[in-house]
Design brief:
With 296 residues, the protein is of the alpha/beta class. It is built from 15 helices and 7 strands. Helix 7 (152-174) runs antiparallel to helix 8 (179-199). The longest helix has 23 residues, at 152-174.
């Protein structure tokens, strides 16, 4: 079985490693050539039936427009975010280029560095086509437990929203507000994420499982999370551009916070934590946000 990965960042490389460990013929590509086993061109991968998309969520549409020609490929979307320019979820973006029945989405607690150490974790493959979800689930090695479900929108919102909440958690720790405050923030963040998701038809169980609570608890409580680190630096009133250069990786929560802010305003969804993260990213004092949040 051959599988191709688009995107050679840390997560793309971790998935490539996992598939090789599962004895698949895994190939990987990116815009910039990398010294990685089985590195190939985009064209080589686009001829395959099974593809994993692991580029930044904000680059999905431009990549699809430039490179993708549909030939019944099946795509597992490993990106997590909401398109900031349009407010569209990634399943909506990808559905403009191929049928929903050819799409799956991966979610759950999964730091790339731990996957590459073969440390155990559990992930969810979500698709309206459960047979396709199961095919992708079976691609993973035995140190990754996989589940399948059909709640695509729930998995999408969980994967996107948790990055914004991780920024909030990093701000909390950067301000040295204590463990009680962080636990309260994460708990209320989970409720907020669930409220947002239910508006778009997501299932509550998704937010209580691996895609929601599992990934949120991980991302919002570890220095390994780039979004968490963004929040810690923001608490020190550092400039966002400087922070992102220092981290040197894409922090999806930055763009996603903008999308959630505008979506929640448009549909009148109560999202106080995400809104404050958006305000802080646009220059509001973290301490002022704290005071405002405690009043809401």
């Amino acid at each position: 079985m051959k599988i191709g990965i688009i995107g050679a960042g840390k997560w793309g490389q971790a998935l490539h490693f996992a598939f090789l460990e599962a004895h698949l013929n895994s190939f990987i590509s990116s815009r910039t050539k990398r010294d990685i086993k089985n590195f190939v061109s985009f064209d080589f991968i686009l001829d395959m039936e099974y593809i994993v998309f692991a580029l930044s969520a904000q680059h999905a549409r431009s990549w699809l427009k430039r490179y993708f020609v549909f030939n019944n490929q099946k795509i597992l979307v490993a990106s997590k975010g909401i398109e900031a320019k349009t407010g569209k979820f990634l399943n909506d973006v990808f559905s403009e280029f191929l049928p929903e029945s050819n799409l799956s989405f991966i979610s759950g607690p999964s730091f790339a560095s731990e996957v590459k150490q073969k440390l155990p974790t559990a992930l969810v493959i979500s698709s309206t086509n459960k047979n396709l979800a199961q095919i992708y689930a079976d691609f993973f090695p035995d140190f990754i437990k996989t589940y399948v479900d059909d709640d695509v929108i729930g998995a999408e919102i969980s994967g996107a929203y948790k990055n914004v909440l991780a920024i909030a958690s990093g701000i909390c720790d950067g301000l040295k507000l204590g463990n009680n405050a962080r636990a309260s923030l994460i708990a209320r963040g989970l409720i907020e994420m669930n409220r947002f998701g239910k508006y778009f038809g997501a299932k509550e169980d998704t937010f209580l499982g691996l895609s929601g609570a599992g990934d949120l608890f991980l991302t919002a409580s570890s220095e390994l999370s780039r979004n968490y680190r963004v929040g810690k630096f923001l608490a020190l009133e550092e400039n966002l551009e400087t922070i992102l250069k220092k981290i040197g990786e894409v922090a999806e929560g930055v763009a996603t916070s903008k999308a959630i802010y505008h979506i929640s305003k448009k549909y009148d969804i109560y999202t106080p934590i995400a809104n404050e993260v958006h305000e802080i990213l646009n220059g509001k004092s973290a301490l002022k946000s704290l005071k405002d949040l405690l009043k809401k």
